[in-house]
Amino acid sequence: MTTTDILHETFSALTANKVRTALTMLGIVIGISSVIIMVSIGQGAQATIQNSIQSIGSNLIMVSPGATRSFGYGASTGRGSARTLTMGDVSAISSGVQNINAISPEVSSRYQVTAKGTNTNTTVTGSTPAYTTVHNVTVDDGSFISQGDVDNKSKVAVIGPTTATDLFGDGVEAVGQSIRINGLEFKVIGVTKSKGGSGFGNQDDAIYVPLSSAQLFLAGNTTYITALSVSATDASVMTQVQNDITNILLERHKIADAANADFNVLNQADIVSAAAGVTGTFTILLAAVAGISLVVGGIGIMNMMLTTVTERTREIGLRKAIGAKRRDITIQFLTEAMALTIIGGAIGVAIGWGAAYAVTATGILQTSVSMSSILLAFGVSAAIGIIFGYYPALRASRLNPIEALRYE
Amino acid sequence: MIEIKNITKTYVNGDNETRALRGVSFTIKDGEFVAIMGPSGSGKSTLMHILGCLDTPTSGTYVLDGNDVSTLSDDDLADIRHNRIGFVFQSFNLLSRATVLRNVTLPLIYAEVPESERNARAHAALSAAGLPEDRYNHMSNQLSGGQIQRVAIARALVNNPSLILADEPTGNLDSQTGDIVLGTFQRLNKEFARTIILITHEREVAEHADRIIYIKDGAILEDGSSHKKRMIEHGKKKA
């Protein structure tokens, strides 16, 4: 039998009962498209989370104060709320740790902010010029806080694009206007460039003021800071920088056991890998659920093929009588099963791809359809065709032509 | 040329042994038109399966065109079937969802005949079987019984087999259409010198052949160069 003959036979067999063929294929279509959609959602979520982690800075090490907890089983006031990090710690780290690119001490808290007739509630961060380096912040309009602003305790502010829109409206020049933070007037000297984040921790909805001004006018003390961000010179020295910072702080805070530390040192790479681990598990879970529907689809194929073999027993007998070998019959039925799964798989990939685009278009979730998931889906559907088609095909090929011809 | 010698066939079903053939021998020369006749249960179907290389005998030899085919494997028998034997069945066994031409070319697919030759050979076989040319592209389920059986005959002819085996070819046809089909066999035998073996239980059908082998209880009772008077007695016994 030539390939053309096999394809011709397959085509006429599959079109003989179009409704049944379509319904059987539907199982594979649903299975493959759900695998594609689920994996694309998982991978999209992973990419989104990693982007937002990357956008807070590169080679970043974050130091935050520990939680204060009253003795025994008292309530924790939450991580970062304790006053344990001081400006002295900052200068000790700055002078005592090697391979630091920039160091950015920060004091941040949420305040009610007002401008002529409008108001918003946002995070106000007291920062130094190093903030831009450490957190990859760029200024779109005006300038960022200068060392002079920090030294002079100037009442100037740099605002995020979302905050600018909230306070002054769309397309209105914000630089040069005044805002009131906690009742004190600050002059806007710059607007940062959008980073495109969203939701909690949106870096486009933020206000930056000089560190010294924030300590003096807003926090009310000039010693403590609420966070310290350090950017290492290179990804390979992250661990060394992290360890050195931990050691200096343990020594300065006179803590012998690192388990009792009154601060936390987080490495951006750890966060990325933790997030990747979570989203990876999530993706596998989604793919496994979708995979079950694929197996159900495969059983549907097997069921249809077994029915077909029974229905066409006489035809198989005839084919054998006029000279078909076992192999010819096996190939014919296997090709039918594979045609079902491959056509179903192709439709499933198309639907899954379309649905992933639709999900992205709604803006709820970013999705990304990778070539590897398409190839995998295709490979799996072809494999299902072979696995679930093989048994019926084998049964057909082993039919005795005499009995098959007499079959009623 | 068909030579069978002392063929037996025993079916074992649990403890039961059924001896369907108990030593059958005969020779059929090229170009003969032979009817194998016998009541149901006589073993004629088993004999047909062996002659058609659908089954192998328990003992004895079957030599077809000089080759001993009594001990071949399944796949080798398949080769013999599509090279040397054409089948015509009582229940036609056409593919109903395929055209007449597709049905007739089916054996050529398995014989690996190039696509370019197939149509010409199918046309030749169909015209030898006497089907009007305007029916060639009809679906086979749009034809009448007589036309269907002629398509089946064309399908049996298309490989130029040394032997055409017809198993009760008129069993599902009315007597008038049956006569047309039997006439077709006679014409193929006379005009195209085809060897034809007709298996039937009806004397009237068997009498269209030149030679009748009467078989009963798995053995040959009578092998007569068809003439009718002796056979009539057996026919009456059966009735």
Provide an overview of this structure.
The complex is a heterodimer of chains A (408) and B (239). In chain A, 40% of the residues are buried. By secondary structure, chain A is of the alpha+beta class. Chain A is elongated and about 105 Å long. Chain A contains 13 helices and ten strands. The longest helix of chain A has 44 residues, at 268-311. Chain B is α/β, with parallel strands linked by helices and 239 residues long. Chain B has helices at residues 44-51, 74-84, 100-110, 115-129, 145-157, 175-191, 203-206, 228-238; strands at residues 2-13, 16-28, 33-37, 59-64, 67-68, 85-88, 163-167, 196-200, 211-216, 219-224. In chain B, the strands form two sheets. Chain B has a six-stranded mixed beta sheet with strand order 6-7-8-3-9-10, with helices on both faces. In chain B, a hairpin with a 2-residue loop joins strand 4 and strand 5 (67-68). The two termini of chain B are 33 Å apart. The mean pLDDT of chain B is 87. Classes of the chains: A alpha+beta (408), B alpha/beta (239). Chain A binds chain B through residues 1-2, 4-5, 12, 16, 314-315, 317-328, 401-402, 405, and chain B through 49, 52, 54-55, 74-75, 78-79, 81-83, 87, 89, 91, 93, 95, 97-98, 106-107, 109-112, 115, 155, 159.
